[in-house]
Each structure stands twice: as structure tokens, then as C-alpha cells.
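Lab channel / #folding
Pinned by the channel admin:
"Please post every new chain as: sequence first, then the C-alpha cells as a reply. Keep commentary short and put observations after the output so the thread stays searchable."

First post following the new format, from NK:
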Amino acid sequence: MTRRSGLAPIAWLAVLLYVLFLLYPLGRSLVLSFTDRNPLKAGSSFVGLANYADMLDDPRLLGTLRFTILVVVAVTVVANVFGLAFALLLNRDTAGYRAMRTLVFIPQVLSGVIVAFIWRSILTQNGLLNAALARTGVTSGTAWLGSTDLATFSICAVVSWMTIAFATVVYSAALRTVPPELYEAARVDGAGAVDRFRAVTLPMIAPGMTINVVLCLITTFKLYDVIAVLTGGGPANTTQSTAYYLLEVAFTQNLFGYSSAIAMLLLTLTAGIAYTVTFLLRKREARL
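Reply from TO:
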């Protein structure tokens, strides 16, 4: 009798990796969130919901949540609007347009740390942007990373620049699935460019839009690397994301129990919003 291996070993390996690198850390973090675990102390005690209660009186945590949600909304809107616009502009089947689509995707390929270092050299007070603006006489010495509003704007701009690349590729792939016959039929019916976009393009690329919006939400909610390099959470902790604050609590203040509770809050918030948005966009797809 011959042995049937098939894909079973690979499947079991995938399950093992899933348990080791996702389920176990998640369960471990959940358990730690109910303790006062500190790596500098020999043991830890069960504190119940005390860590979760402390979050309600933590002004820095509430500030990071407001900042995170602001960045998530801004980046999601900007990335999808410009990603769709670029995809429409580059929706041509020629070598030149294919090359431009490849160039547009480069920011997504680069590491977030590398992108942040590049943009920090551009946005510093003596950086390339201020030098260019000074030569044109518009302004000089603008503290793009030194004031609260401009630092927030700079972070949103850099993250959007990275995310637009992915959104453009997804929308480009979605546009390639639209049958040309639908556009021809719309033209015969007298539909203009705007009407064709509303009646043909939007319904056909709706699944791609759902993917872009949800992935953008999830990615931005866990934003850390760009903030760490660009502003370090400053000025005065005003550009700290919740993920950034979580790591500071864990590895600077050594409060593993409290940081685990913050991680559970961030996970629940991200999953809840992502699920709700997915549900609403799926309903919209059905209506279209």
C-alpha cells in the first residue's frame, strides 16, 4: 500500500506556524493583560481588569488614539482617491504606461524605515523642501517636523505616499477586469465620461476598493516605524500613535501587563472597525 503524503505535511506546517507565531503570542498577551507583569521583577500578580480600568484615566493613551484615528482616516481617504486617479491615468496597455505603473509601486516595495529616513532628509529645517521653497521665495525655514500641526500633516503625507502605491496597483488590476464591451454599450447609450465612471467603472472595481480601504485601515492602525524615524513621537508626544505608545510602555517603562492591555484594545479596535467597514462595503457592492 503506497503512502499518500500530498500536501498534508505542508498544511500541518502552516497550522503549526499559525499557532506558534499568532495564536500563542495573542493568548500570551491576553493573559499578561490581567497581570502586573514587569520584567525587572521576579514575579507577577493577577490584577484582573485593573489595567483596562487604568486606560480610561490615561490621557496619553487617549491622545494617541485620537492621533491614530486622525491618521487612519486621512491616509485611507487620500490613498484611495489618488490611487484610483493614478490607476485611471495609467490604464493603458503600452510599454511606457507599464513602466510608469512599476515606478509608482516602488514606494510600497521600500521599507518604511528607509522611506522615513528619505523623507526626514527632505522635511528637516535645512532639508531639500525648505531649500526649494526658499529659492522660489515662497517661505524659508518651515519646521515641518517641529510643530504639532505640520508634523501631523507630514506623517500623513509620507504614509499616504507609501500607501498610494499599493492602492494604485490594486485599482489598476481591478480596471483590467472591466470588459471593454460595457464601455462601448454605455457610449452607444449616450453616456459621457462621468456617467461611464459612475455606471460602469465604480461597480466593477468595488471589490478592489474594499480591499484597498480595509488593508489601508489595518496597516495604518499599527503604524510605528515612520513615526519613530520622522518625529520620534514629538513634538511633546503629540504624534505618538497607539502602537508607538504601546512599545514605549512595554520597553521603556517595563509595564508588560499594561502594554498587553493596550495591545488588546488596539487589536479589538482594529478588528472591529475593519469588520464593520468590510461589512458596509460588501453591502455597497451588492447594491451596485
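NK: The chain has a mean pLDDT of 89.
TO: also worth noting, The chain has 13 helices and no strands.
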